[in-house]
Design goal:
Strand content: 5-15%
Radius of gyration: 58 Å
Strand order of the largest sheet: 18-19-20-17-21-22-23-24
Shape: elongated
Largest sheet: 8 strands, mixed
Length: 1766
């Protein structure tokens, strides 16, 4: 070590110790230094020959480690070797030599890098060691000197021969492993120094090692040596065979298989590859004995794998045909192991390259396959047993070739191949034999000789003698194919010579699958064979199916619950019976349309007889297969149909239920009379009408089939069969011709059976049923299948007796709580039309059941549609008492909830409430007001208030967050509006949308408004001035105020401003006195033949036998009842508003009116003396035409107007009292017992959609108790109790008014409204009131007697044959003074205390104020209808109570609008009469028009306000609908032009139109008064149209057949202009084909109501709706909203009523949805709502203008300041 290192300081040592490196110093690695070892002469002397032997050997032994680990000094190696070399001489003792060789090994190993040229010297030393004992030392010395074979430096050429000489000795010594490892290294690293002879010798000796040694390590080393030779050296050709043989043997060893293949693959990849293949082929063809099986097997494997195996050698170019002969040759050795290898190799070849092999190659393969087949069949001695895998692989080769043949990729000889298949057919799989049969079948052709005999032989071999099922069925398939190809020529020969001999006893065959295939073939033959063969075949089929269908019990095992033993059944033996019967069913469908018809009758009878056997011997048909057969047969029988000509047909399910009828089969016609007229046949058809079409037509009695359905429902226990019958029966029941062809009362029986399945618990349904659906099958689930059938039975009501109808309705009533509640509701709706007599008595119970059902989205529309339907049938509720009406409102009110139901549902609910309120009896209405308002409060207003509070509590303090919350709420509400339903049944309140809240509050306001209008009387919604009122108010002043949500217009009479001379008369009156012509002279009305003239409402006291009649002492208000009065406008040249109404009088000499003397005395001064003796002097004229005022109130639900006269004198001079008669109608107060508000509000409702099974069972027990009589007793007791609760002090009138007895036809022909609106007796007067409470003022009698206040008798009712007279009610005459009581509300419907307390209930002022109530109905009793407590305010008093309540006949539109709309300020000059502000102020300050704290608003006289009022007048106070009607003839379902050009339809179509409405003449209609839906009145759209109307609705029909066709319009665009823009179109489809929506193209044609006329006066009504793309979604299907998607069967008589109601509801839904698209912020609900919105717009416009003029403080009345609003 250097000095510098020794003097290293401590710091560096520490750094080195802790491995702390100097960052600046480079990283270095210090190698350990080995000190040179110096041998002194003494040491050399000690190991030299001079030293004693023991000492010398000890020293040599000690120096071994030194020389191995130490570096010796220069020349030390030579010195050491010279010292010991004598010890390695041959004569040296063995011990000494071994020590010396060990020392030499240590020296070479330790000083190897310093040997240099000494390497060659030491190699010569090793080479010179010839002693056998030194073999291992020599090997170790060579291994060390050559560095384990890696370095042969200095002795390269000599190493190879040395190893070759040493190898035999080493192999013999057993030290093989070390030598072989050394040899591998030498070959790898020094192959270049090894000569060819050396390599050849080493390889040969290596190849012999596997034969000598079984050591795995040695064999592996041999493979390594050969691998090294092949990879690193050159393999001589002379040793190639040795290498291949060694590898072929080693490939049989599993452990070296892969290594051997890898080595062979390398060898084959060299230049010796082809030689190697040739060598192996030669080995295969060598027949020398003994045979080396392993060698041959290896050769086969290597050749096959190298040329076409998965490890194919790509460099080899041998063809398959060049090596396959060697494979064929090697089979001659009869070696099983070699043959198996050949099979595997051929398998790989065929599988991989089969489709590419040539014909020559296939021939060799066929030879090999034949040789293999023979080898497998022959047992070879001295051979191991045949490998069981060999036959499998062999047959797999055949299967591969078969697959190639199937795909057309086999290039070999097909016949030779199938010959091989036939040789081993018994061992081939069934598919192979099947292919063989197919091959033979191709040779069976009529052109071949003995082809029938060949077919017979084929069946004999492969059908009779074969036992495998598939092969036998294949043989039958070949037979079937040959029959199908040759049946037209050789069918009889084949059936007689082949089919019948082989299948004559097929029913006795033991194989059920073969019997099945045979049955299929026979059925196929039966479809088209001649009648004689058909009879023979049908006999075989009859034998085949005439067996018990019973399953076989195969195993028994206990049930998991530990109960009875479970059994497993096997029904595979029944497959032939099932196939035969199902095939007969299909054959029945085919034979129906084929001749002769006897074949159909035979099959039909076989099927029916089999079904009878199943039900008569149920024990023999208890299997599942029997149930499947029953289900299929039932399905087929249920799909039979018959047309109007009684021709039979089947529904074709594969072609969209297309119907095709047979000309050969007809059903029997059941005739109730002597003759029966077929609808499509012009001639009468006799009873025995089987030959009315063709003489060859055959009769089929459907009675047996229909009886099977009833038997199935009675006795069948398999649910799948019962379900099939129940599902298909509703469709079958639509075909009345087929159903009514049955004999007996089967329809009534079916209805009874169905009802019993619902109400008879003793039948045990559904517990006793089998094959029920997985899971719990409950009673409600079972009933869900029965109710649709019961609903279909409604159309057969004529064939059910009264008790059965009642039973049917009772079951449908219970269905309201089932899962089919929607369906049952619709069915009950049809019952109200079809079975009115029975339904009228059951209706209270149905309503009670409906009131118990929870209001759900799914039930909303059906329930509301049901209520809206029965309200159009007055007969249904003629006997209703208060409780029944209350039930209706209790049902409808929950559907006004906007948080749960769609806008359309809420709108329809309000419509239902309105029409029922108008139609209910007048005495009951007052009590219903509070009930309805409570319901609206709970379902609408309260929810919005709660949600408002919830929103306020959840608002964030951040303004941005609050804005976001509002937007989300609006979006949520918008989604609710579009989707129809927003929340679940839980009490969940979504965020409040101000727009939606306002919408529903306004809807509630309109409801309150119409109740206030109709609470005590029914008056038309639009008043019309009489001629007298026009005369009185001409030239007067008009002013209009807004008071709450009403517009009050007061018009005062003007009178002449210029006095005529000194008469003190105005020029207007003077013109009348002097005989001037009246300014308004009505022209003569043209007479229309066959039409009634207009009958105006008059006040009459004569007994002239005109249309309106009354008693001689009565003053009655007569109504318009003629359907022709709309057209009178054109005759009278009037143009008034919109509607007709009542008139005070009509001054026509031919018509009854005022007393002529009274009128003349009043207006024209004909008499100068009044009835009380006062004289008209010339000094008196504040003229008689002055002092009058008309008060008109426009409200959302309509307008109200009356005339009044101010009796106060206008000067200090006492003027004489006006002789004008007081014609005010005075009504008696309705004192009714208020109904119980909570009587129909149960604590819980029934949710029919998700009712629990336990609750369903309890309801079932309640609805169908065991003792039915007790149920009726309870109902009667309840009804009796209800009647007994009426007020005992009043009596019910027993006589019904003519209006109540009016027929529906009369109702339809009324142009004004139905009797319930216009009649003045039955609907408007409480008959319970005593006669003394009803008084009528006879003004004329008062004039004659000079007294006032005399009471009159009660009015009598009169009616002619065309009209229903209205009846007048009256009260006692007015006193001098009266107290006034009003119950008012603000514009939001909040209750306010009444202004005064009424002291005299009979005051005429009170009757006057019945028309003044602005929002709610008044009450003359101490208890208000809107509140419980009242406060007293000072009464409004007038000197006289003469107030005239008139609804006059209409004048022209211009005059009418001028009289009521123009606002005239007091500043106007040239106007006479009273200032309207005077009248308004007296009424307002007096409390009559006072409405809470809200101040009235005087409307300014400007264009904006005038337009707003005109727009309000043009919004109808009733609903208007326009509906298109088209007729579709034969072949027109897709031809729009042909449909529109139809000028007429069928007779049933014409009758249908007449029922839709009444016919009106368009030229006689004034569009301003009559709603005509845009039709032209000048003839462009025809001369006539149909319309219909009632109290709240007007409907116009755009009938295409009533519109003219024009040559200038070939595409009928004029018709399409109306019909294409209608939302709803009624399609009368008389084409017999299916009609699809879209045939009439239009943007707004949303709904088509398709009517399909059926036989026996019935029709099918179906709804079709199209999807309309909205902005961001698809609108909800209107048909789904309306709940009318199911087809309804309705009779001709009731078809118009049903279709009209559906059309109206659809149009309303379309209006609602259309508004949601166009104006989602203002949804549509009704015209009443639109009028309310228009009033609020006028109010907002007025307030905006006032604010713009001057900023005013908050409007409220202070200190009686009234100048702000006058």
């Amino acid at each position: 070590m250097s000095r510098q290192k020794q003097e290293e300081n401590l710091k560096d040592k520490l750094k080195s110790l802790f491995r702390i490196k100097d960052k600046s110093a480079p990283v270095t690695f210090q190698r350990p230094t080995v000190r040179e070892f110096i041998f002194t002469p003494d040491v050399l002397k000690d190991i030299g020959p001079e030293s004693p032997a023991n000492n010398r050997l000890r020293t040599i032994r000690e120096l071994c480690n030194t020389v191995q680990t130490k570096k010796l000094e220069e020349n030390a190696i030579e010195a050491l070797w010279n010292s010991i070399k004598d010890l390695v001489q041959p004569g040296t003792p063995s011990e000494s030599r071994q020590i010396a060789l060990h020392f030499l090994h240590s020296l070479i190993e330790g000083q190897l890098e310093y040997l240099g040229i000494l390497r060659a010297h030491f190699f010569s030393v090793i080479e010179g060691l010839t002693n056998h004992e030194d073999l291992s030392q020599r090997l170790e010395l060579f291994k060390a000197l050559s560095e384990n074979g890696r370095n042969l430096g200095e002795f390269e050429e000599l190493a190879g021969p040395l190893l070759l000489r040493m190898m035999p000795d080493v192999l013999a010594s057993g030290n093989m492993s070390t030598f072989l490892q050394l040899l591998v290294q030498i070959v790898k690293y020094n192959a270049a120094y090894l000569d060819e002879d050396v390599i050849c010798g080493l390889v040969k000796q290596t190849c012999m090692i596997p034969n000598r040694s079984r050591s795995e390590e040695d064999i592996k080393m041999c493979l390594d040596i050969l691998d090294a030779v092949v990879c690193y050296s050159y393999l001589p050709c002379e040793c190639l065979q040795h290498v291949i043989a060694a590898l072929c043997r080693m490939i049989n060893m599993p452990k070296y298989c892969l290594n051997s293949w890898e080595l062979m693959k390398k060898l084959l990849g060299t230049h010796l590859g082809h030689s190697s293949i040739y060598t192996m082929c030669c080995m295969l063809q060598d027949r020398r004995q003994p045979t080396d099986h392993n060698l041959l097997r290896g050769s086969v494997f290597f050749v096959g794998m190298a040329l076409w195996g998965s490890k194919k050698v790509p460099t080899l170019k041998h063809t398959f045909s060049s090596v396959l002969p060697s494979f064929l040759q090697v089979l001659s050795t009869n070696s099983h192991i070699v043959a198996y290898e050949v099979v595997l190799s051929i398998h790989r070849l065929v599988k991989k390259y089969g489709k590419d092999l040539q014909h020559v190659t296939w021939n060799i393969i066929m030879d090999i396959l034949e040789g293999l087949l023979k080898l497998m069949e022959v047992s070879v001695p001295n051979q191991p047993p045949l490998d069981p895998r060999m036959p499998v692989d062999f047959h797999d080769i055949l299967s591969i070739i078969e697959d190639l043949h199937m795909h057309g990729q086999f290039s070999g000889c097909v016949s030779r191949f199938f010959k091989i298949i036939e040789m081993c057919a018994s061992k081939r799989p069934e598919s192979s034999v099947s292919m063989l049969i197919t091959h033979h079948a191709q040779m069976i052709l009529p052109v071949k000789e003995n082809w029938v005999q060949n077919l017979y032989s084929l069946l004999e071999k492969y059908f009779r003698q074969e036992s495998r099922t598939m092969i036998r069925t294949k043989a039958l398939a070949v037979l079937s194919f040959v029959l199908s190809v040759n049946k037209h020529v050789h069918e009889d020969e084949l059936i007689n010579n082949v089919v019948l001999p082989h299948l004559g006893h097929i029913d006795q065959d033991s194989d059920p699958e073969v019997r099945k295939v045979a049955a299929e073939m026979l059925l196929c033959l039966a479809q088209s064979c001649n009648h004689q063969c058909f009879q023979a075949i049908i006999i075989l089929l009859e034998k085949l199916i005439d067996k018990p269908v019973v399953a076989i019990v195969t195993t028994r095992y206990p049930s998991p619950e530990g109960g009875e033993v479970m059994q497993q059944h096997d029904e595979s033996h029944l497959v032939d019976i099932k196939t035969g019967l199902l095939g007969l069913v299909d054959l029945l469908r085919v034979k129906l349309y084929m001749h002769p018809s006897k074949e159909f009758q035979k099959i039909y009878q076989m099927i029916v007889d089999h079904m009878k056997k199943q039900y008569s011997n149920s024990q023999d048909y208890s299997s599942h297969t029997a149930a499947v057969i029953r289900k299929n047969i039932m399905t087929t029988l249920l799909q039979m149909r018959s047309d109007s000509l009684s021709r039979m047909g089947f529904i074709n399910i594969d072609q969209d239920n297309l119907l095709k009828f047979s000309p050969y089969i007809v059903c029997e016609l059941r005739c109730d009379e002597d003759t029966l007229v077929v609808p499509s046949s012009p001639n009468p058809v006799p009873k025995d009408s089987s030959k009315f079409l063709w003489t060859s037509a055959s009769l089929v009695d459907y009675t047996e089939a229909f009886s099977l359905f009833i038997t199935c429902l009675k006795h069948d226990l398999d649910w799948q069969v019962i379900e099939c019958v129940l599902v298909n029966l509703p469709l079958l029941l639509q075909n009345k011709t087929l159903i009514l062809s049955t004999q007996g009362d089967l329809i009534d029986t079916l209805c009874h059976v169905l009802c019993a399945m619902v109400n008879d618990r003793q039948l045990g349904f559904p517990e006793k049923l089998t094959s029920v659906p997985f899971g719990k099958f409950t009673r409600s689930d079972f009933h869900a299948f029965i109710f649709p059938v019961l609903a279909s039975m409604v159309s057969y009501h004529k064939h059910l007796d009264r008790n059965r109808q009642k039973e049917l309705i009772k079951c449908l009533e219970f269905g309201l709580v089932s899962k089919c509640a929607k369906l049952c509701t619709n069915a009950l709706r049809l019952c109200t039309l079809e079975m009115q007599e029975v339904m009228m008595r059951q209706l209270p119970s149905v309503l009670l059941q409906l009131s118990k059902i929870s209001a759900t989205v799914s039930m909303a529309i059906p329930v509301l549609a049901f209520l809206s339907s029965i309200v159009r049938l007055p007969k249904m509720y003629a006997n209703f008492v208060e409780d029944e009406y209350m039930s209706v409102f209790a049902i409808a009110l929950p559907y006004t909830n906007p948080f749960k139901f769609s806008h359309y549902t809420v709108s329809l609910a309000h419509h239902v409430i309105a029409i029922w309120f108008i139609r209910c009896r007048v005495p009951f209405r007052k009590g219903f007001v509070k009930f309805i308002q409570k319901g609206l409060r709970a379902n609408v207003l309260q929810l919005f208030e709660e949600n408002s509070m919830l929103q306020l509590q959840n608002e964030d303090s951040s303004d941005r967050n609050r804005a976001a919350t509002y937007n989300e709420a609006a979006l949520s509400s918008r989604r609710r509006m579009l989707s129809g339903s927003s929340i679940s049944r839980q009490r969940y309140h979504p965020p409040v949308d101000d727009k939606m809240s306002q919408f529903h509050k306004e809807l509630t306001e309109t409801c309150t408004d119409f109740m206030a209008r109709y609470a005590f009387a029914n008056y038309n919604a639009v008043p019309h001035r009489s001629q007298e009122a026009e005369f009185l108010l001409k030239g007067g002043q008009t002013q209009t105020w807004l008071l709450g949500n009403k517009v009050v217009t007061i018009t005062t009479s003007g009178g002449g401003n210029n006095k005529f001379g000194n008469t003190w008369l105005c020029d207007q009156c003077m013109a009348q006195i002097q005989g001037g012509e009246p300014q308004e002279k009505k022209p003569a009305q043209p007479e229309t033949p066959g039409r009634r003239r207009h009958k105006s409402a008059v006040v009459s006291r004569s007994n002239v036998q005109e249309a309106p009649k009354s008693s001689s002492d009565d003053i009655g208000i007569q109504v318009h009842t003629s359907y022709d009065d709309m057209s009178i406008l054109g005759e009278e040249q009037q143009n008034v508003g919109v509607q007709t109404g009542r008139s005070l009088t009509e001054h026509s000499p031919s018509k009854p009116g005022f007393d002529t003397e009274a009128i003349e005395s009043l207006l024209w001064g004909v008499k100068n003396q009044a009835s009380d003796g006062r004289v008209l002097n010339n000094l008196m004229c504040n003229c008689w035409c002055t002092g009058w005022a008309e008060i008109m109130i426009r409200a959302p639900s309509g307008n109200l107007s009356w005339m009044m006269r101010i009796e106060n004198e206008t000067s200090l001079t006492s003027l004489q009292e006006s002789p004008m008669t007081d014609i005010t109608m005075l009504f008696a107060a309705m004192r009714n017992k208020p109904p119980d508000m909570d009587s129909l509000r149960s604590s819980s409702r029934i949710d029919s959609g998700s009712i629990g099974e336990e609750e369903y069972e309890s309801l079932y027990d309640l609805h169908f108790p065991s003792d039915s009589s007790s149920d009726h007793k309870k109902i009667n007791q309840i009804l009796a109790k209800t009647v007994s609760q009426e007020d005992g002090g009043h009596t019910m009138a027993t006589d019904t008014s003519p209006s109540d007895q009016a027929s529906p036809t009369q109702m339809l022909k009324r142009s004004n409204s139905s009797p319930s609106l216009l009649s003045g007796s039955a609907d408007n007067v409480d008959m319970k009131e005593s006669i003394s409470d009803m008084a009528l003022v006879d003004v004329n009698r008062a004039e004659r007697d000079g007294t006032h206040g005399s009471n009159t008798q009660s009015p009598h009712l009169h009616r002619d044959e065309n009209e229903t007279a209205s009846n007048a009610t009256s009260q006692s005459s007015h006193p001098k003074s009266a107290n006034l009581s009003l119950s008012l509300s603000d514009n939001y419907g909040h209750r306010l205390p009444p202004l005064t307390n009424l002291s005299q209930p009979s005051s005429p002022v009170k009757a006057f104020h019945h028309h003044l109530d602005l929002a709610q109905s008044p009450d003359s009793s101490d208890t208000s209808s809107l509140q419980d407590e009242v406060t007293e305010l000072p009464a409004f008093r007038k000197l006289r109570g003469h107030t005239i309540s008139i609804v006059t006949d209409a004048k022209s539109e211009d005059k009418f609008q001028q009289g009521r709309s123009k606002v005239i300020t007091p500043k106007e000059s040239g106007r006479g009469g009273i200032n309207p502000s005077f009248v308004f102020l007296q009424l307002y300050q007096g409390g009559v028009l006072h409405q809470g704290t809200e101040m009235p608003i005087l409307l300014p006289d400007n264009q904006a306000i005038t337009r707003g009022l005109n727009m309000l007048d043009h919004i109808h106070p009733y609903e208007t609908h326009k509906v298109g009607v088209i007729y579709v003839g034969s072949g027109q379902t897709k031809d729009e032009k042909a449909i529109l050009r139809n000028q007429f339809g069928s007779e049933k179509y014409a009758q249908f139109l007449q029922g839709l409405g009444h016919l009106m003449r368009l030229p006689d209609c004034d569009p301003n008064r009559v709603y005509i839906g845009g039709l032209d009145v000048h003839g462009s759209d025809g001369l006539f149209a149909y319309s219909w109307q009632d109290e709240t609705m007007h409907v116009i029909y755009h009938v295409a057949t009533l519109m003219p066709n024009k040559e200038s319009d070939p595409n009928c665009n004029a018709k399409k202009l109306h019909i294409g823009n209608d939302y709803v179109t009624i399609v009368y489809n008389d084409s017999g084909e299916d009609y699809k929506i879209g045939a009439i193209k239009g943007q707004f044609n949303y709904v088509n109501i398709v009517i399909k006329p059926l036989d026996h006066e019935s029709n099918a009504v179906t709804l079709q709706a199209k999807e309309v793309p909205f902005k961001d979604s698809i609108t909800t299907d209107i048909a789904e909203i309306l709940g009318h998607k199911d087809t309804k069967i309705i009779s001709d008589a009731n078809l118009p009523d049903l279709v009209r109601q559906i059309a109206v509801n659809c149009d309303l839904a379309s209006l609602v949805l259309q508004r949601q698209q166009s104006q989602p912020q203002d949804p549509f609900a009704s015209n009443w709502l639109e009028r309310l919105r228009q009033i609020k717009r006028i109010k907002q416009k007025t307030l905006t203008e006032e604010v713009n003029k001057v900023e005013q403080p908050t409007r409220h009345q202070e200190l009686g300041d009234f100048t702000e609003f006058v």
